[in-house]
Design goal:
Length: 392
């Protein structure tokens, strides 16, 4: 049986965004631009495309305009409306919940919409995932493992160093009943794993289960007012279910802070990381935007950088990621930076460890400097000039 006849997907984009401000001020985390031409949502949607899943629901809180503009009908990922399929977008859940007056036995629309979608999909299995774990997962392989193990639930994890998890990270770490086997004993915060354990099996917020099991877990979460990603729901019901882990060995980054977002982009300048994310057996697909090739003048000096289309480059660019329609004028210097779509950097400006959001204009002679661990972020559409030696 084809995967799209077995599997539907709930993509839960109710993800913590506070540590990514101001980049998430007007966009969902899933809509963050990435790697000069992608957005974070492209990666889960591409994994679903490779698994031939065409019945997908996105659940979004907060600002959804940028995300909706990007995914639209889901056509690039094969999710445009078909018989038994389609891309279904649920936004504004927080507003609906605030206005709801629930009867004693009634659950909130946020949970009910997920249950209704899964029921109406008429698929045997559901995969639950988000966008903050940047990866390229083979969901067909996860489903095969789930069926072979006769598990109630299968969660995807990766063995990482302890430094991967922030001290206050809510990411749950898997422990197993028997070392070297896949059956889970518990899910614990990283801080509760003994310090002697240098490697942690971090849950990636991706799980596969039968649709009936998903409905059961969701009803239980709603009735007990349990909030959090799928790992939280699974931990709550672990004693009643057989849960197995599926080890992912590809590239992974948890996008939860400005620093981790910056590092993930910079990782693409390393060929091994780039190949691990993009050149697996599965393609990474994004919305097509046609444009002219980027122009590099004779004065341009480029070192270890990536560029999208429609740029005009006259200056010096080193170890940087440059998005579409960016202009970098003569004598401007850009190092270790992310320059998003439509930004303009004037002559004599110098940027080092800087993230420019979309449409930023940097005037002549402006000097901006952050650090590798704390890059300087310039908010969308700002204009910065130097007058009498003072930056504005």
């Amino acid at each position: 049986m084809k995967t799209n006849e077995q599997l539907c997907a709930v993509v839960n984009l109710d993800e913590s965004e506070s540590k990514l401000m101001p980049l998430t001020k007007r966009r969902a985390l899933a809509a963050l631009p990435f790697g000069s031409r992608y957005r974070l949502i492209d990666f889960p949607l591409s994994s679903l495309y490779s698994a031939e899943v065409n019945s997908v629901a996105l659940f979004v809180r907060g600002s959804a305009r940028a995300l909706l503009d990007h995914v639209r009908s889901g056509y690039p990922w094969g999710m445009e409306s078909t018989v038994g399929g389609g891309l279904f977008i649920h936004a504004g859940a927080e507003f609906k919940e605030a206005l709801e007056k629930l009867e004693p036995d009634q659950i909130s629309s946020y949970y009910q919409d997920q249950i209704d979608f899964v029921r109406h999909s008429k698929k045997e299995y559901v995969v639950v995932m988000g966008s903050k774990m940047l990866c390229n997962v083979d969901l067909k392989a996860v489903l095969r493992s789930h069926i072979a193990n006769e598990a109630d639930i299968t969660v995807v994890y990766k063995n990482v160093t302890r430094e991967f998890c922030l001290p206050d990270s809510i990411a749950n770490c898997l422990t197993f009943e028997v070392e070297g086997e896949s059956k889970l004993a518990d899910l614990l915060p990283a801080c509760e794993i003994p310090k002697k354990e240098t490697k942690l099996a971090v849950g990636m917020g991706i799980a596969i289960m039968k649709t009936d099991k998903f409905i059961e877990l969701t009803n239980e979460a709603a009735n007990n007012r349990i909030k959090g990603d799928i790992n939280v729901l699974i931990k709550h019901s672990l004693k009643k279910n057989t849960v197995h882990g599926y080890e992912y060995t590809g590239y992974l980054k948890n996008i939860e802070t400005i620093s981790s977002y910056y590092e993930a982009n910079m990782d693409l300048l390393d060929e091994d990381n780039y190949n691990a994310l993009f050149y697996r057996s599965q393609p990474v697909i994004t919305k097509v935007k046609n444009g002219a090739p980027t122009y590099y003048s004779k004065e341009a000096v480029i070192t270890n950088s990536q560029f999208a289309s429609d740029c005009v480059i006259d200056g010096i660019v080193e170890d940087s990621i440059v998005f579409r329609k960016v202009t970098i004028e003569k004598t401007a210097i850009v190092r270790h930076s992310l320059i998003m779509q439509g930004s303009k950097i004037a002559e004599g400006a110098e940027l080092d460890y800087v993230i420019l959001d979309k449409g930023v204009k940097i005037g002549p002679g402006v000097k901006l400097k952050g650090t590798k661990k704390n890059p300087l972020v310039v908010e969308k559409n700002r204009e910065i000039n130097v007058e009498k030696g003072v930056e504005k």
